[in-house]
Amino acid sequence: MREELARDERVFVIGEDVGRRGGVFLATDGFIDEFGEDRIIDTPLAESSIAGIALGAAMNGMRPICEIQFADFIWPTFNQLLGEAARARYGTEGKISVPLVARTPYGGGVRGGLYHSQSVEAFFSHSPGLKVVAPATPYDAKGLLKSAVRDDDPVIFLEHKRTYRLVRGEVPDEEYTVPLGEAEVKIKGEHISVITYGLMVHHCIEAARSLAGEGISAEVVDLRTLAPMDRGTVVSSVKKTGKALIVHEDTKTGGVGGEVSAVIAEEAFDYLDGPVVRLAGPDVPAMPFSPPLEAKFMLDTDKIAEAIRKLADY
Hints:
By secondary structure, the protein is α/β, with parallel strands linked by helices. The chain folds into 2 domains: about 1-165, Rossmann fold, CATH 3.40.50; about 185-310, Rossmann fold. About 35% of the residues lie in helices and about 20% in strands. The protein contains 13 helices and 12 strands. Helix 9 (about 200-210) links the parallel strand 8 and strand 9. It is globular and about 60 Å long. The protein starts with a helix and ends with a helix. The mean pLDDT is about 95.
């Protein structure tokens, strides 16, 4: 964000506590001193106004980065983001674009309980006109965010809360971007394709490495962008391995995994040697606060490894 603010004077940041406090996760720490209150704008606790101001500014040539402090509170923005931002280009025959980025922390495993643990990606991935990004690594986070800021369409940029402190990685100082809409094979394999995104990428990589000693070669595909989805990389991987396990933390019914399953069924059915399997969170209203119940809800390396073993033996 700092690089994009310095590069383009049309970029500004707006959200709750993004100014003097530097954001609850310190993502904008020091920004207000560097760029001033005109470009780092603190707002009241009113998500619909954050998205509405960003929408209007984007339609008038600015490039806002609006932060929704937790994804659990993104619901008041639905009309602005889904009803307006996603449809503006189509509705005006391309005369108006909405180059805004909505950053928001999502996901569980942080003892956040019902209202600080939700996964929201499926709601936005269903809406043509919105791009939905969920990076897993620091390198991808920087490159994808820069691409999102420069994109002429609205982008929902999902940052898993556990990755803020848990995940480390090299990030080049020099200028680079990661294209939106391109998945990446994180680990190559021969026997089974594991398709995932966000925090689960790291658990899937650990599971794949642990199973190598058992003679199971798992390929881990990181979607990175959920909408538009990179169908080609998914299909190519499944055609090679013949088996597919889709892993995501979000609840199973209606999740991104269902769309991935449909793509595989439509475009790689003849190559399958087993059922397309989804491993996901349980269909309960929210993540529990109780640590044992939260652990029951969350996927981990052991659960993923066991699912891979079961499908590999099919």
